[in-house]
Write a structure and sequence with these properties.
The protein is an alpha/beta fold and 358 residues long. 34% of the residues lie in helices and 19% in strands. It is built from 11 helices and 13 strands.
Length: 358
């Protein structure tokens, strides 16, 4: 005999989400119908693709079946909220969550990871922005397929309108200095430029703002940690020893300033010859995985040394949805954002600033 409606709801609420590793909140489940034709809507705190949602689908359908119910339809909605950041840092208007992508060393593919994470999130229905925080060497416009000389950033009372490209909002110093003129600036000027780009851009209800940081642990990183609300960070490395030594410093910096680390991405982890199909570990092997294990942080994924990924970045186009590397970025994006969804919710932005005077 089929279980009662309340019993089924209780059982559904006990399912462990395969990404957050927490029980589904019963408030996030809307169940309608009866045992013969149940319709269910699951509200998730992070975006997810149809392919990855299949794991939820299997769990829900199995639970209903155990209680004698038949799943006629299972849908999902995304309910992405603002989550906690560093204490005392004000929220960015129009931005719910900020994800910083950093590295200890240059040339490890940090911008590639940042942009492709943004593409993956946008494909899954999230509203995404990309902030190019590399003032000296901005590469984000090229990887988004934008020709800076063809862009005129609208300004209204010192407010910048973000440039739309490939489904993402973006802002970069390259849009404001389009002739390729070098930024021969000292630290305070660079930090001021970052704050202007972040705070004076009219971000349009971004669920996630991806910040592509320059390498190292200098002025930009310190300004970010003190002035910009960062929800979590992603660290990029390659497997060789030199990169791993540097990336430990980047991880230590985020830990010191109290910014959570979502995990580590190992890039250029191996090259497969397209002719003989033999794999060569050009930049060593599994160094990122070993470091992640040693530091007890998640390994978000390993990316191969791939001509397709390089070509997509050079052309400024997303990888095809069905591409194997695109699927890796999709899984990375869900890992990062599902982790964010388990952090404390930031309720402070729902209240007006209150000043108490004598």
């Amino acid at each position: 005999m089929p279980s009662s409606f309340d019993t089924v709801c209780e059982a559904l609420g006990a399912i462990i989400d395969p990404y957050t590793h927490q029980k589904f909140d019963k408030k996030s489940i809307t169940l309608q119908g009866d045992s013969a034709a149940a319709e269910l809507v699951l509200s998730l705190g992070y975006p997810i693709s149809d392919r990855l949602f299949e794991s939820h689908h299997v769990l829900i359908k199995g639970t209903l079946s155990e209680h004698g119910w038949e799943a006629k339809r299972i849908d999902r909605v995304n309910r992405i909220r603002s989550h906690s950041v560093q204490e005392g840092v004000k929220a960015l208007p129009g931005v719910k969550n900020v994800i910083a992508v950093g590295s200890g060393k240059g040339g490890v593919g940090k911008s590639t990871v940042a942009v492709n994470l943004a593409f993956a999130l946008a494909r899954m229905g999230a509203r995404v922005g990309v902030l190019d925080a590399d003032i000296y060497g901005p590469n984000v416009p090229a990887m988004l397929g934008v020709e800076p000389q063809e862009v005129s950033v609208a300004q209204e009372k010192d407010v910048f309108e973000p440039v739309l490209a490939q489904g993402c909002q973006s802002m970069s110093m390259a849009y404001l200095v389009p002739d390729g003129r070098p930024m021969v600036w000292r630290g305070p000027m660079v930090s001021g430029a970052l704050l202007q780009l972040a705070q004076q851009t009219r971000w349009d209800q971004c669920d996630y703002l991806i910040v592509d940081l320059p390498p190292g642990t200098g002025d930009i990183q310190l300004t970010l940690s003190k002035k910009i609300p960062v929800t979590t960070s992603v660290i990029v490395t390659t497997p060789q020893v030199v990169a791993l030594l540097d990336v430990q410093k980047g991880i230590g910096m985020f830990e010191k300033v109290g910014i959570p680390i979502a995990g580590l991405v190992e890039n250029m982890s191996g090259f497969t010859c397209p002719h003989c199909h033999e794999q060569s570990d050009i930049f060593s092997k599994s160094g990122g995985a070993a470091l992640a294990e040693a530091l007890s942080i998640p390994l978000l994924g390993s990316l191969p040394l791939s001509p397709k990924l390089r070509e997509a970045g050079d052309l400024g186009v997303p990888l095809a949805d069905q591409d194997e590397i695109s699927s890796i970025f999709e899984e990375m994006a869900v890992s990062v954002t599902s982790g964010i969804s388990t952090q404390d919710i930031d309720y402070s932005r729902h209240f007006s600033n209150v000043q108490v005077t004598d």
